[in-house]
Amino acid sequence: MGLLTKDGDLHYYPIGDKHVCSDCFGDEYIKGFIESNAESPKCDFCGKESPEPIAADIDEVIEYIRDCISTEWGNPDDEGVPVENGEYVWPVKDSYELFYDEIELDANLACPPKIGPP
Fold first, then answer.
1. Where are the domains of the chain?
2. Contact at 8 Å (CB) between 17 and 26?
3. Is this structure's pTM higher than 0.70?
4. What sections of the chain are H helices per DSSP?
5. What is the tens place of the pLDDT at every residue in 56-90?
6. What is the pLDDT of residue 118?
7. What region, left, alpha or beta, does residue 52 occupy, with left being phi > 0 and alpha being psi -120 to 50 degrees?
8. Distance separating alpha carbons of residues 109 and 62, to the nearest angstrom
C-alpha cells in the first residue's frame, strides 16, 4: 500500500475502509482531528477497541495531514526558490523525502509512527 509518490507533489493512494485511532499519533492536532471525526469503535492499525467510536477514516486523516503540510510546504517553483544552472540554490525536499526522511514514516509499519512529541 503506497501513501505517496516521489514526484514532488503530495499524492497518496486511498487505503479505503480502515480506521485509525488517536493513540497512533503523537501530534495533538492530528489527535484532535481523529477524536472529532471518530466513527469506528476499533482501530485497524493498533487494534484498540472501545464501546464508543475512537477511530477516524484513515483516508480522511491522510487528507487532513496533507492539507496541513500544504500550508507549510510548497512546490519550490511556486515558492520562489532560486535556480542556478538548472539546480535549486537552496535545499529542497520532495514529498517522499518529507514523509520518509523528515517524519520518518515507515510504510511497512502496522501502525503509523507517533508524529510529533510523545
1. 19-102
2. no
3. no
4. 28-36, 58-72, 95-97
5. 999 899 888 878 877 777 777 777 888 899 888 88
6. 40
7. beta
8. 16
